[in-house]
Amino acid sequence: MDVTSVTATGAVARPVQVSVNTAAAAYARADKPGMVRGSDTVEVSAEARAAAKASRARRSEDAPVRLDLVTRVRDEIQQGTYVTLPKMDQAIRELTPELVGV
User: Fold this and answer.
1) What does DSSP assign to residue 52?
2) 42 and 80 both lie in a single domain
3) 70 and 56 share a domain?
4) Could you report the per-residue pLDDT of 49-59, keeping only the tens digit for each?
5) Are 44 and 68 in contact (CB under 8 A)?
6) Which residues are CB-contacts of 35 (< 8 A; sequence separation ≥ 6)?
7) pTM (predicted TM-score)
């Protein structure tokens, strides 16, 4: 099976070869009803592993972790003060065009 990876920006990357052997396919080849041979496996090519590693490296370079922000948000979530009406209103305004297809 060929799988085409999609970046976070939506740009399509080169196709990546992924081999998938499923238990269902093994069942279809079984000699007797109820007999299952094999197991589910996924093989990822060296090219796909290299692309994933490069993508992780790019993300970490482009967006360094802001520990002060992470700590503040974590504390607000634990205290139950992170979700507020103004934040909900903003989220609804931003998501509505996507939901109604505008």
Assistant:
1) H
2) no
3) no
4) 999 888 887 77
5) no
6) 27
7) 0.33
Count of C-beta atoms within a 10 Å radius of residue 44: 14
Q: How far is CA 89 from CA 28, 94, 96, in A?
A: 52, 9, 10
Q: Are residues 47 and 79 in the same domain?
A: no
Rg over alpha carbons for the chain, rounded to the nearest Å, is 22
Handedness of CA 33, 37, 39, 44 (dihedral sign): negative
Nearest C-alpha neighbor of 51 from the set 15, 2, 95, 9 = 15
Q: Give residue 73's pLDDT.
A: 94
Same domain membership, residue 29 and residue 71: no
What residue has token string 């507020």? 84
Provide the domain limits for residue 77. Answer: 66-102
Q: Is residue 60 domain-shared with residue 70, that is, in the same domain?
A: no
